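User: Hi! I'm working on a homework problem where we have to compare a predicted structure to a textbook description. Could you give me the structure for the chain below?
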Amino acid sequence: MNGEGVPGHATLKQALHWKQIYTEILAMEEKVLTRIRQLMDKQSDEARREVELTNVPVVVAQAERFRQRLGYWEARVHEPNGASTPNRGPRLVTPPRAATRSSRSTQTH
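Assistant: Happy to help. Predicted structure tokens:
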């Protein structure tokens, strides 16, 4: 995410900040998915199938991406001494970020 910086060098304050950001975004994505499913209940079978095949996977993929990032930052917060210091101790592997943008950027609504 823009402004996230280099996660491997994050301070405890930065890790707490990004944990909060991803918590908020994930909560929103889950509400979006709930609302989509509520609206689908009122649609025809054909429309519902189309939404299930197109819209739902995009929202689910985005929620999973945010869930993974949240998990990463939660782990960073709970490391001894907050976030790790460069050249000391094991580092958590940062999930790939490049592939996560393609789904939404190529979708047209």
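For your comparison, note the following. Helices lie at 12-40, 45-78, 102-106. Residues 8-79 form one domain. Good luck with the assignment!
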